[in-house]
Amino acid sequence: MSGPLKQGDGARDELFAERLERIGDFDFGERTAAVFDDMLERSVPMYSEIQRMVGELVADVAQSGDEIYDLGCSTCNTFIEIDAHLPKEVCLRFVGLDNSEQMLNTARRKMDAVKLRHHCEFRLADLNQAIEISNARVVIMTLTLQFVRPMRREALLRTIYEGMAHNGLFVIVEKVLGEHSTFNRLFIKHYYEMKKRCGYSELEIAQKRDALENVLIPYRYSENVALLRDVGFNQIDTFFKWYNFCGMVAIK
Questions:
Q1: Which residues, listed in sequence order, are joined to residue 124 by a DSSP beta bridge?
Q2: How far is CA 235 from CA 28, 57, 74, 119, in A?
Q3: pLDDT of residue 245
Q4: Per-residue pLDDT reduced to its tens digit, 217-245
Q5: Is the separation of the CB atoms in 191 and 243 below 8 Å?
Q6: Is the pTM of this model over 0.85?
Q7: How many CB atoms lie within 10 A of CB 78?
Q8: Cα–Cα distance for residue pair 15/11, rounded to 1 Å
Q9: 189: burial class by Cβ within 10 Å (0-12, 13-18, 19+)?
Q10: At the top level of CATH, which class does the domain 30-180+208-251 belong to?
Q11: What average pLDDT does the segment 127-146 reach?
């Protein structure tokens, strides 16, 4: 086993530390890729624990030769975490899709650095467009569906469902809205408090929120479950919940 990747080895996330005259839409380009691991660790509650749980769930079902897809793989922390939980005799085929070449370049460097023993294929792909998935034992979307345009989400999930093997596992982690406006307000308040504890200033929080406003569009938990059922998933459960973040798992 290569062991889980230590987080925080890259540059510190200070993308929004200085006041910006104009705040454009958030993107996953070179500047973001350079600090993305630190951003995830400090912006996503219990990020390392979520990754560990995903690794365990995948290891529960994966067998040698299986194809494991990560849609929106970014810097590929998930593949490394999965490997840490697999028996050494199990060898998989990892397929990572992302729409940022800079993220994929970082992922490739990581794979080389940890000498991951599995076959890894990286594809530059826009999830808002048609993608190809075939015979997938596991498909993972960690904080990715929320960035897909709402009008494209059902079609993407249907492609995932149809491209999965029988009894395939779908693991999805999302930022979600509260089911009621009161809960939503409280959850967001506590989320921003967490970000402050992790060293982000009020200016950073506000500017990033503005940058994400038209890019990250979360659904309620119930809406995500309804989408999964609509495309064919019947066995659905929750494996993680922290205020406005949720991890769901479904079986085809």
A1: 98
A2: 33, 15, 28, 30
A3: 98
A4: 999 999 999 999 999 999 999 999 999 99
A5: yes
A6: yes
A7: 25
A8: 11
A9: exposed
A10: alpha beta
A11: 97
